[in-house]
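Researcher: Here's the sequence for the chain we discussed earlier.
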Amino acid sequence: MLVLGGYDESLVNFRGPLLRAMVKAGHTVIGVAPTETPGVPQALSEMGVRFVPVALARAGLNPLADLLSLLRLKALFRRERPDVVLSYTIKPVIYGSLAASWSGVPRIYALITGLGAAFHTAGIKGRLLRFIAAQMYRLALKRCTKVLVQNQEIADLFVKEGIVDAWRMMVVPGSGVDTAHFAFIPPRAGPPVFLLLARMLRDKGVEEYVAAARLVKKQLPRARFLLVGNTDPNPAAISKEQLNQWNQEGAVEYRSAVSDVRPLLTDCSIYVLPSYHEGMPRSVLEAMAMGRPVITTNTIGCRDMVFEAGPPDVDGVKWGNNGALVPVREDECLAVAMLRLARDPGLAVRMGQQGRLLAERFFDVNQVNARMMSEMNISAEYSKSRPPVSVA
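Model: Thanks. This is the structure I predict for it:
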């Protein structure tokens, strides 16, 4: 079995539980991605997964770079001869599915974790990106045995635009969350601590989070605002200079990504993700599992994280059982929601408790992985029948 991702760290952080489940079921598992992060090959090896690096252009529109990525993947698949290929994120899905088909891989699966900037960029450039992405998806996904989608709205959109037939798709509840690893921990007493965990991209709502932090800090000077995540080569990335400036200003406390986010979630009292679009945000699931109320956006993927959200109040906030939804790109509305939870810690605690129950009921990683493996017809009895061959 070969699992292809856009960057190596995601194999550990996002697909790790699935890879472990595959290994536990008796499969030979290969993880493939560009090499970027020290320690990832070792971490995968400790899971029982063999890591194979590949040069893959995961951002930008360079036809030559994309063609080279496709050819590299085709050569890799012919060398490794996997029985099953599972790819996720846009370029690995497109080029991985095409390369797997042209290499004779018997079973090809795509995991659509979100729409990405190609479907959300405005203007003429956005329409062009969307057209190109839709055409490439259409070409690639028709070669897949099945397409797993983390969001019903994305599935509906793909069917509406003729990207993939409905019978070929299956909606799965995100990547799940390990509710034992992310155990419930009651929030600490004291001034409110807000947290945003994300790659430092504008699409994640980082700028809105900082703007809202400034507004909240005027009324609650002792409140803290943690911003945690690495910079990224994506065109929508926020520069290190900008992050350092925010740090020096005191609006937020920025730090690079950490291997274990549980201490950060333990320290925070309210989790915030003002993203423009998601598939099903893993960081929100982790926050819910640890009993934190969530504030996120009323947009595709994110709105599924707040259960039974009512109509917008006078400030535009939709309140649900475990948190709040705010409009995209609305820092003032975001600040209103943050202030209410900060001023009513009892409400925040009750919402956090509801979030934990929802995580256990709907998003437990063992249930999610079992469903995915069932949809991929993977069982413990499955064995590799096509050994790797050397390619001159």
